[in-house]
Every structure is written in structure tokens, then in C-alpha cells.
Amino acid sequence: MLNKKGGGLLLTAAMLAGVFVYMLFVSAQRASAIPAFARKYQTSCTTCHSNYPELNDFGEAFKKNGFKFPKDDEVFVKDAPVMLGSKAQKEAFPGAVYPGEIPGSIPLGFRYSGFFTMNNKRPMGLGYTPRTDMFTPNTFTIISAGSFGQNISFWIDDDVSTGGSGADGGLGDGYLKFNDLGHYLKLPKDTLNVRFGQFELDLPFSEARSVYPSGYDIFDQVSVAGGYPPTGLLPTTNNPFTLGAPQRGIEIGGYPNDGNFSWSIAVVNGSNDGLAARNSKDVYARISQKFNLERDSASRKDVQAAGPTGPRDHTSIRVGAFYYYGRNVQNIGSQTYSYLGAIREPFYRVGTDLRFKYRHAELFGVLMYAHDRNHLIDTEAGTIASGLPVTYSGGFAGLNYWLYPWMIASLRYDAVNSPADYYNGMSRNMTRNRITPGLQILVRSNIKVVTEYQRGWEQPNPDGPNPFFRANTFVTGIDYSF
Amino acid sequence: MKTISRLVLAVAGCVALAGMAFTAQAGEIKGKVSVQGIKSAANIAVYVDEIAGKTFPAPAEHVVIDQIKMSFVPKVTVVLKGTTVDFLNSDPVGHNVYWPSISGNKKLQHNLGTWPKGQKKPFQFNDLGVASLLCNVHPEMSGYLVVVATPYFAVTGKDGSFEIKGVPAGTYTLKTWSEDGKPTTQSITVGEGAATAEITVKK
To answer: Which fold has domain A4-44+109-481?
Structure first.
């Protein structure tokens, strides 16, 4: 909880943020800044984004169509592609290289984000960290995406500076995707796509392209065996896997039924740091179904609903489920425990999600359960036996509300129940909660001011056996792309 | 009887001659608009302002403004007060047409909603002024509708040239409106032939 002095600093910071926003509105020249897709089609970011990078219904259809307009794409392209062979060359195949195309201009976009953060005071004895920090994380991202013709699309994004969102200062997504391969098998449109490379898993809510400065706690949670009541045995689970981190692998999936049904199965390394840590590969699967609740049948079939004041997102409910299975491996080559072989510990994550959209409101949530096999090592006897699994659960629920097309209020609740964290002294209780109100203001379609306050209920525990501190944090900053 | 017939014929002949004379006296206004501080002289509305004591009936024929490739076509349209404009959507995406005001009068704002490709929505413009046409889902789209009091108007071409035909002889106030420039006003006298106007629009 912030004290009086902290409250005064908070008020000052809020006032400064307000002045900053006002100055951006009244003093900025009319901007024509446009990232790669906006440049290709000479259209505003708001054509596809309700609050970038979050996509509206049109943007989702654009993405699912391999980064092309859902209908008559060639009519809208203002930057003609470079043809790598005429269309007639198709007839010459396999006697000639199959013709393709590349974007006319290099499809580069840039994004910068930097935030001012302020934490409440850290208790004495727990070390020193500054209460405020200017523009951290300070992230510059290069984004390139587009299509190589009718059925091939690509995406590459790289955080150049440290503390990058979802990628820790490195390559985020870098993949090639073949769209609508099911066409060759006479399947309905977009039933089968394949992508290769590094990519964020098909999560119900993206961490890499989230609108919030803070991640979803449940997606960032790891499994580390806690200090169980002393038995003289050593638990082994130490799984660094997080659901929100990008993965390297192959994913097949599809969006049949006009994109209302979505499925994906990915086979991945299990991590993206350096070389693969183990021989086994992990599997991730997800399905979701969107129920379009528009009363007018013509409006239901269209990409966006026909509202009385203009096109808008469909009123809809989307429900989904996901499952991740992997096998963490430790003591490879008996490097840690010479008397034991490799310790293989299967783990899984399973969850369900919901998203409800109605006019200016969006309600969403995830529930997830995690389970890691655990072992107990008797270091004196030199033996290993099964132990109680390490589990955790939790999720988040939130609401976004568009007060104006350029002003979005948000409220989110995150909860993680992790007995292991409690035993490890990482949490005062077995369950930790956080509520995060926020406000985002689109100063322009490509520039926004982001503010949120992360408030937990854990009080510092300087006198306990494992002192820890989880700060309440006020974050405000700028995010722009061009 | 013969005398009356001759008299009727003579009067009819005079009326016809008078009509021909009136027609012969309808001239035109030609000219060119040049610009200072503005990128282009194209799409500038040139029109004869209100004529005291004279009103004009609204045309029966509708004017069409289309939406093609995410643009309003034409970008600038001038209509006589009372004209009905049909807003057509020729794009395979949903569009919306609205104007937040007419010449700053927000009470005259209107939103026509959304309609699919191939359909059109009509609206009769009964108030003088300029309406900025917008689409709320594609903010880069904009068009302008200038509602004027007389049927004597034109929109400049790429080189700024314009031609207004059928203007009766007389002295009038000639005005311009453009997206980026300040409005201009000047007097012009139209005789039997073409009157020439050289107009400069400044930022």
C-alpha cells in the first residue's frame, strides 16, 4: 500500500501523464505514420486494430487470410508486388521454377515502447532497488510481415533492445506459413495451414502482442519444487517452461467455417534459448469455437457487423481449450548426480478460455491447471523415488471498455495458486492475487499512452524465514509504431 | 378572324424571339484557379453565390457519390440545395458514411449507417454549407459535399481550370471552397459570351 509520500508522488506522476497526453493531442502535427500493412494498403491502423496490437474482426480475418484482405485483396493493394515470374509460368512447372511474388517495398515496421514505473517502498533489509525508473523496459522492435503470393505468408519480429516484450531482447516470431493447403485436398477454405519456425503458441490471448504492459501471471508461472516439510529428501522438479514464451517448431492448424472454428497442433522444442535442451519434443493443441450472436443473418456472414453508425465487431462468444504436454529432462549425462541417470519428468498444462464481445465491451478470461512430475532424491542413499507432483493453477479475468474509439479502460484480475512458490518463500500465501486497472489513450492511430496500476495483496514479510517483496507498481508510458 | 390569327402569330413570334434572345444572352464563366501554399489546384469548388430574390427548384435527378477502393469518388461534389445524393458502396467491404457537421453546425450532423457492396443510401441536402464525408472504420477516407444556392457551379480539374455554363447575364458573386485553402469571393459580370475569372486560393 502506498504511504502519503508515495500517494503524493503518484498524484504528481498522474498529473504529468495528463499534461503529456494533452500536449500530444494539441501540438502534434497531422501524422501519416503507417507500418507495413498500412503502407501496403494506404489505410489506417484502425482498419484492423481496435487497440493495436489487438485485432478487430476485420484484422482477425486479414491475419487468417495470410495477411491479405478477406475479399478482393488485389483491388486494395496500393503497393504492387514484384512478380517473381509471370502467372503463366505456372504452366511451365516443373520445367521452370514455380512463379511467386515479394512485396513491392520492403515491408518493415518499427515499434517503440518505454514506460515510467514507480514501486512502493521496499522494506529495509531486503536490498535496494530504485522506487522509480524512467522508460523501462525500453524496447525497440523491428517487424516485417506480409505475403509471398496467394498462399504463403511470413512474419518476423525482433526486439533490438533488452527487456523486450515476450522475447527478452531477441527474436520473437520468425516463421513462414503455408495457407489453405487443404485446398489441394478438396477441403473447405482455410481448413489446413502449416507454419514453420519460431512463433508464439496459439494461445487464447497473446502475450507477445498484448495491449498490457504487464504479462498474464499464469502464463509466466514456472514449476519449481518447493521446500516440502523436511524428510531428508530433495525434490527435483525445476521446469523453466512458461506458456507465454515463443517456441521453435511446426504447427498445423486451420480456421474453417469462416474462421469461427479454430484448431492447431504444434510440435515444438520446448524452449527457444540456444540449442534444444532435450531430444523429446513437446506438443501443444488448441481448439476454439466462436459463436456469432448477431441477429441479422447477412451481418453474421459478413466480416464485420453492420452497425447503425458504421461497421463494428460482431457480438460473439468464443470458447476454447488448450493442452500442452512436454517432458522436462534433468541430470543429462549424470552431470548433477553422478549416481543417477537422466531424470525425465513429464508435465502438462491444460486450460480453458472465454471471450465475450458486445458493442464497446470485451470480457475475457482463462483458467489453467499445471502438473509436473516430481521425484525425491535421497542424496545419502543415492536413490530416487517418485514424489508428490508439483502443481499450480490459476488464471485471469478482465474487461476492456472503449469509452471512445481512442480511449480504452481496462480492469484485470490475475490469480496464481502455487503451493511450491509458498514453500520456496516466493509467495506469502499459497495463492497470490493481483488487480490491474488501466487506461490506454490512442493519441493517434499509431501512438498511444498506456497506464496501469498493478496492485497485489501480499504484504512484505521482512521478518519471515524467506524475506520477499512483491511491489505494487504504477506504470505509464508511450508506445508508437511506424 | 384573319386579323386575330395574324395577331396571335405575331405575339407568338415575339415571344419566341424574346426567348431566343434570352437564351442567346445566357453565358458562361470560364477560368482557372491558381494556388499558393497548397499542393494542388484540383478539386476546388467554384460557384455563384445566392442571387437575391431568386430561388431554384431542386433537381429531380439524384447525384451519386461512390465508395471505391476505400475512397469517396468524386472527392469533392457540389450540389444545388435540395438535391438528393445517393451514396453508393462499390467496395467488397462494409463502409459507413457520416458527417459531423455542415459548415460547423453540429446539429446538422448525420450518420447513414453501414451498407454492403452494390447498395446505396439517399439523403436530401436542404442546408447550405460544406459537409465533410467520413467513414468511421476507415479514417483515411474523406470526401466533401458543398451545398450551394444556385445551379451555377463547377469543380476544378487537375490544372485548376473550370467552366460554368448556362449562367444568365448579370453581375454575381463568385466564390470558391477548397479543402486546404481559404475561401475566396469576387464579383463577376456575365454578358452574352464567356466571362473569365482568374482566382487565387491561398492557404
So the answer is: Porin (2.40.160)
